[in-house]
Amino acid sequence: MRVAFQTALLSCEPIFVPKLRRSCYPHPSLPISWFPTKTRVFSPCRAIMAVPSRPTVQVRDNIELNETEKKIFDRLLGTVRHFGLQNQLRVAGGWVRDKLLGKDCYDIDIALDNMLGSEFVEKVRDYLLHVGEEAQGIAVIPCNPEQSKHLETARMRICDTWIDFVNLRCEEYCENSRIPTVQKYGTAEEDAYRRDLTINSLFYNINTSSIEDYTKRGIADLKSGKIVTPLPPKSTFMDDPLRVLRAIRFGARFGFILDEELKEAASCDEVKAALSAKISRERIGTEIDLMISGNQPVQAMTYICDLKLFWVVFSLHPKYEPAVPEGCDRLCVAYLDATWNLIQLIGNSTFNDEQRRLALYTAMFLPLRKTVYKDNKAKKIPVVSYIFRDSLKRKVSDAETVINVHYAFEKFLPLIPYFASNEDVLLTEVDWEREFVDVPLASKSRVLTGFLLRELKDFWRVALLMSTLVYPRNIDCTEDLLNKNFELERRRSLFKAAEDAVLKLGLDKIWDIKPLVNGRDIMNVLQLKSGGPLVREWQQKILAWQLARPSATAEECLEWMRETHSKRLRME
Length: 572
What we know:
By secondary structure, this protein is α+β, with helices and mostly antiparallel strands. A hairpin with a 2-residue loop joins strand 6 and strand 7. Helix 3 (67-83) packs across helix 5 (117-130) and helix 9 crosses helix 13 (297-306).
């Protein structure tokens, strides 16, 4: 075998080697068929090129509790002793993982081995009253299979921290649903094996102050930076396809490597079909939002793209047009990549969390901004709206903001030469509308920018960011983006020059400025008895006049109105 491997390594010829068994202690319930012995093709050159670098992960040997955690756990153990209960109290999942990684975590989930959470919460309340402490808010969240919540969860506040209580369980799923067909009290080991990932299957036993690793590889995978499922990945994903997206999210968040067998299962047609059929779009949208809002959104979307899940997650309307070109998913991720890096270079403080989140969505869907579908009334609707409202079930305001930026950012493009220059540049590309006729030439750039910012409000910097990505618009940057030739420094300089110019013009928060003249004043000057299109037209004219003359008064504006109206009447 060694000679064959060395020969193939030099010649780059594929060889057949036995498929190695998974290096995990098997759970007693696993069928022997999970350990395949058939051979697979192994190409040394391809394998060597595909192996990513291993992350270096610092994992603590034990968990150090802070003062609040000590107080919480003392009260829980006091409850057990006071009532003579036989419960083993375990903190499950993410809290254990994060504490071992040295990270703060305020999401404490207590797993109970022989009691419902609602029953134990009542005991805790009685104990706290017994020792003279007030029992804070208590709530029981019933199971709701339609919303993918299969267990009753009890919540209460202890030491100003919300704690969730659930029972250990084992469960089986039916073929076409996430709703378990069998659900019962389980052991800690059974509960660990039904978790999504080995790094999330760890317990901290409060009774014994010890870490429990029932899969025998949770800590090892944490140390080696691997994303692995406790049970075979395909059956794990078929039971609950949402685990595919959770694996991607945690892999991106921690910079961990996705297990090869996991990637193979995640990208198979059966799992993709199950993800579409069994998981509510709200749950998919929540996972995607966590990725986009996380610390590594590009890596998360790259995983989704590499695993052929992009159009499963961001599904399009069945009758969209024009056709989406091949490789559009990778171009979407390339725009996201460029924007993420540009934001880091410009400085995170330039954008708040909401602006940054929607900027990333806006960038990712830039290649789809001209793709539409027709509704029941034959009205053309941007397909991006369908993605937000139907594929991800996000807020309507998210869709509206992204679409508005897609529409408005191109208006920034002809302004960029003006912003980037210290000299007045003739804005020849701008289609000046009627309300700009009476605006002095030197003020037209301020007026146009002011109207644009009033349209975009707090998201004008996001639109400016998008315009720097596609500037100049007569040059196709697709290949550069796909090849990661982002020209970040040039784009940063354009953004900063434009931002500084807008601020120098005194236009930040211009959307909060009230018009000098109201509708009733306009009607009085025009001698109208009711409002209508003519009043709206004059409101736009007045706004343009006001933007061109930021120091003007209401009296001056009314005098200009009277003169202009009289002139129009004489001409008519």
